[in-house]
Amino acid sequence: MKRTIMMTAIALMTGVLAGYWFCHARWEADTERMNASQAREESERLKKALEDNRNLQETVRGLQARMKKENDHAKREYDALLARLHRGTARMSVPVRKDGGVSCTGRAADDAGQTRAELDPETAERILSVGRDGDEAIRELNQCIDQYRAVEKACKQTA
Predict the structure, then answer these.
(1) How many Cα neighbours within 13 Å face the side chain of 94?
(2) Angle at 152 between CA 147 and CA 157, to 5 degrees
(3) In 137-159, which positions are buried (b, 16+ CB within 10 angstroms) versus exposed (e)?
(4) Residues 81 and 125: beta-carbon distance below 8 Å
(5) What share of the chain is helix, strand, coil (3-state, %, to 5)?
(6) What pLDDT was estimated at residue 32?
(7) Which residues 6+ apart lie within 8 Å of 46 measured at CB?
(8) Enclosing H/E stretch for 114
(9) What percent of the chain shows pLDDT beyond 90?
(10) Distance between CA 130 and CA 121 in Å, rounded?
(11) Residue 85 burial by CB count (10 A; 0-12/13-18/19+): exposed, middle or buried?
């Protein structure tokens, strides 16, 4: 009887230890599977985020290239206009009204009582620079808006 109790106790302890070992091994395997699954999911999210970031950078580079092209074109046109003004092939004038219908230069005024006064090239350049600066600011603002919209669109696609 003593021997049977001892054998039963040993069998019980062996069963408990084997069960513990089996459950622990199963728990570790489940944990490893779960960690591997999470790592794959996180890796896929990271790949997608990197791809979205590359696409966004490409879009912004395209917008910046377009703005540079537009600015270069506007500068060429402005410089060409200034060159024509300084050479005298283009002139800039403003309407002038003189009471009595006679112009300041002695020429007759038109039906509305207006005549035109020609501006010297330096004055015309100063006036035109105001418009040039305003146009440049508008182009910069439009680029800012376009970049904002590109980022907004990218964020909505990832959400």
Answers:
(1) 10
(2) 130
(3) eeeeeebeebbeebeeeeeeeee
(4) no
(5) 80, 10, 15
(6) 93
(7) none
(8) strand 114-118
(9) 54
(10) 15
(11) buried
Angle of CA points 97, 98, 102, to nearest 5°:
120
| Stated length of the chain | 159
Q: Output the CA–CA distances (angstroms, integers) from residue 90 to 75, 76, 119, 120, 131, in the order listed.
A: 17, 16, 11, 11, 18
User: Residue 55's closest CA among 151, 156, 159?
Assistant: 151
Can you read off the two tokens belonging to residue 143? 């680029």
Averaged pLDDT for residues 2-30: 88
Sorting pLDDT into bands at 50, 70 and 90, what band is 124? very high
19 compared with 46, residue with greater pLDDT: 46
Ramachandran sector of residue 91 (left: φ over 0; alpha: ψ -120 to 50; beta: rest): beta
- The residue to which tokens 């009595």 are assigned: 100
Give the three-class secondary structure for 141: helix
Q: Of the given ranges (101-110, 125-134, 148-157), which has the lowest mean pLDDT?
A: 101-110
Instruction: Express each pLDDT in 49-62 by its tens digit.
Output: 899 899 999 999 99
